Amino acid sequence: QSVLTQPPSVSGAPGQRVTISCTGSRSNIGAGYDVQWYQQFPGTAPKLLIYGNNNRPSGVPDRFSGSKSGTSASLAITGLQADDEADYYCQSYDSSLSRVFGGGTKLTVL
Amino acid sequence: EVQLVESGGGLVQPGGSLRLSCVASGFTISSNYMSWVRQAPGKGLEWVSLIYSGGNTYYADSVKGRFTISRDNSKNTLFLQMNSLRPEDTAVYHCAREGDHRQAFDIWGQGTMVTVSS
User: Does B23 reach chain A within 8 Å, measured CB to CB?
Assistant: First the structure.
């Protein structure tokens, strides 16, 4: 049972927009701690996609965006592409548990 | 090139010990917060342990008292000493750096597999 809750899977057709939610609590996201998002392909290390709720590291396309409100955060992907098919994880800080991750969401491009 | 390379994984019996290493290049580990993050087969990411640049250490409840994080600044290497290993510790173990933005893991190693089984 992960501290941050994500849907196990989402899907969308090429060109569409999809969102992935990440629900926390008052001890993590709701306490004002930042949310990060990672992309992971099978057999590879995670890659930082979004940091500080809505900032993209250099090289990450602006098709990826993040937002946060209250005890939740979201990752949005616009102009969905076949190579976006991967697992996505949210991550934050928890005042009792330190760094915490969501359970991960598998994105399928139809 | 900025990178992390882990080693030391393998097959170990329950109750055994293993020491993982993570060699950093392109930056200085003692100037950064460094963590170990693991991923059990087919499962999600789980933060395991953290060492601050100042040397303070922190652990997930699941490994507290059994795992010890440390570093050798002269070798720019991070370690994870794992004792009293359990089958549920079976996972790929990644080392990761928190860079300019705290709590964001911007550099990851490829991981080393630890299997705890009799």
Answer: no
